[in-house]
Amino acid sequence: MPINETIARYSDFSFKTAIVVYALVLVLLIWQYATARSRQVAERELVSVGGSAVDPAVPGRIDVPSAKPLSERLGNTAFSVLVVAIALHVASIVLRGFATHRFPLGNMYEFVTMATAAAVVVGVLFLREPRYRAMWVFLLVPVLVLLFLAGTVLYADAAPVVPALKSFWLPVHVTIVSIGSGVFLFAGVASLLFLFRLRQPDGAESAGVLGAIARRLPDARTLDRLAYKTTIIGFPLFGAGVILGAIWAEAAWGRFWGWDPKETCSFIAWVLYAAYLHARATSGWRDTKAAWINVAAFIAMLFNLFIINMVISGLHSYAGLN
């Protein structure tokens, strides 16, 4: 069937608008980050010069509800705007599918769009509470970078897939892999923040910008648990995607496994995630060492996405650029 150019333009418009709205959310969250810190400093300074609380039991005193702090209002606004950004993001995927009359996972642009959507949805599920909002700054930065690359370097016009991808296995295999990749993006960010937070123990007063940033994050144990919980979700998803890819390979090429660069790198990343889960449950490895393994696995995922698809030639090359 011919491509519906009108719907394709709506898809592209939704994609670009989602990037702009995500950027607005990031600005609001950074503003919240700064104002929340300033308010904490101001409260400490007030106490240090002899400020004291007023006794609410004083006769004749009328309690007037205080306005919500600016940081809280910014956080609430940012989360509301984030919902709009996610809706636009998902709409761009759905509209691309309607425009091309196929499942919208036929090239790197569409894969990255789906994976980043999965990452922000995981963020909504795990970072709903206000105490986690500081983490959104660090999740949205890589999401925005990936979306920018998807919309520029990796962009592909709406078009039918090449004959090699016309299979029942395309929506099954690639959907599971892309969602698993999005979950791993969240887990990788959580592990990096865990390692960063370890350098600022609870109650310590580190000087400088890095110390101030670390104190706004959840404690190290919480970050470690978030990384572990999401990796537990992503590990079987990605593993199932690799297995389903092998089944598709047998149907398409007559063999389950041929050590194609994409297959090999995916397997290495999956083994690294298995090593992380094992290390996380092993005494003496469960903290810093395990987190570094998780980071290494995420780097392997990025290498698989960009270097394997764009530099190294293999049987998966048809799923690369336009």
From TrEMBL:
Ordered alphabetically, the record's keywords are:
Cytochrome c-type biogenesis, Membrane, Transmembrane, Transmembrane helix
Q: Where are the transmembrane segments?
A: 13-34, 78-99, 111-127, 134-156, 168-196, 226-249, 261-279, 291-312
Pfam families listed in its UniProt record: Cytochrom_C_asm
Q: What broad class describes the main subcellular location of this protein?
A: membrane
- GO cellular component: a single term: plasma membrane
Sample GO molecular function, one term: heme binding
UniProt membrane topology term: Multi-pass membrane protein
Q: Where in the cell is it found?
A: Membrane
Q: Where is the Cytochrome c assembly protein domain?
A: 106-316
Q: Which GO terms describe its biological process?
A: cytochrome complex assembly
Q: What is this protein called?
A: C-type cytochrome biogenesis protein CcsB
Q: Which gene encodes it?
A: ccsB
